[in-house]
Amino acid sequence: MNLPNNQTISLSAAAVCAALIAVAILYFQNYLGLEPCYLCMTQRVFVIAVGVIFLAAGLHNPAATGQKIYAGLATLTALGGSFFSIKQLWLQGLPEDQVPACGPPVDYLFDAFSVSEAISMLLRGDGNCAEVQWQLLGLSMPGWVLVSFIGLAGVGLLQLLRK
Q1: How far is CA 142 from the centre of its chain?
Q2: Could you read off the pLDDT of 19-75 as tens digits, one per residue?
Q3: Can you list the domains of the chain with their CATH numbers?
């Protein structure tokens, strides 16, 4: 089986990440009016980071060793994003009496707290993260983001392991 070259795969994966962010902002946030929770924002940062790594790999188009470094970084970043998708799915599965309290809006966090404290709160999530705002085929948004991260990690692994 002839696979496309690493540059084509990297640029395609970067385009997928850009499309995911565009759909999140343009459709879900602006059209449907769904406000992202703390963990949603964190997952967006990881999607952007994976996309930037794949874009850099595609534009740089390094030799085999460089490509493996980019692929390893993209895979690890996608797995890091998967952690936050799983965390949000866990919060969504909690009984109502065990859901943590809702926190202030993200804008307020960065106005009222230091950057490190605000980021710490974003990474923990809150009660808003437990709310299921949208589903497709029985899978909520963080479930679909997890599927995307798994796919992106798979692409990274493919590039990491190919000769």
Answers
A1: 9
A2: 999 999 898 888 888 888 878 888 999 999 999 999 999 999 888 898 999 999 999
A3: 6-161 (1.20.1550.10)
